[in-house]
Amino acid sequence: MAERCGAANQYGSGSAVPPDPIATATQPMKRAKLAMTPRLRPFGKDDLAAIVVQLGDPRVAEWLAAIRQPFDLSQAKEFLAYSADPAQRVFALDQDGVVIGGLCLGDALWYWLAPSHWGHGYMARALRAALADHFAVPTPPLTATCREDNTASLSVLRRIGFSAAPMTCRMFFHGAGTSYLCRDHMMTPEQWHVLNPPHLQGPRISLRPARQADLASVQRLLQGQPPCDIWPGQDETQVRNFLETHRFRGAGTALWIIENEERCVLGMVLCGGGRPALRFLTAQDRDRLLSEVHTLLDLPC
To answer: Quick one: CA dihedral 246, 207, 127, 87, positive or negative?
Structure first.
């Protein structure tokens, strides 16, 4: 099944016939390996031949709104110039030294994969890696516009966790010279972090972002601690508000839960807004685990 997505980005035009050298410069495609994630890297001049072949393939171009046909070397150079803009965050998907596709995380999310590599999960894995980096810093929601009949891309977006907009729209596809029924799919930073919470593993403990399900554990850790500027009281409403306020969002202050190998809660740490604040169930746990918590969170000791 193909993994492909149409998007509204348009970076150039032109319709000249591809020059003959492109046909001889095509790199042979290697057979996909199921367990590998393509390496994401910038496009370069050495990738022009692969760009022409892939974006000139009707099986790819039909799903990309901005790609005109026929797609030639001059258009590939326009794309290369477009990809050099850091704001557009365009990456080549490199598998064993071979370009097998590309993706863009700039104004909107759009991507393509060479047909010989469809059906192996490459795009889903590449998107997860790219999105993890994209949402590691504060950033606006990301939108992908996909044709309603693009079942492969719809499946990829749903598996990753994108939310479909309630209304459809029509988008003009330059290669086909007509418009198709499309729908926006969105991923917010908060949505990404809820679906993909970080997990910090140390020799004796692990740290993960706190969630509403940790209510009872947080209340237990707050026993004997009077309400202050840092910690709330033990009242359920206060604690739930505290958990929501300090939910991990990729940046800023966040509450982390400290667990042992048996997933038993040993403590919590509030960090990201200055000096970290910690609470442990016992003084013994604090004495033996404090340095490991600081190491996992890269905090000064």
So the answer is: positive
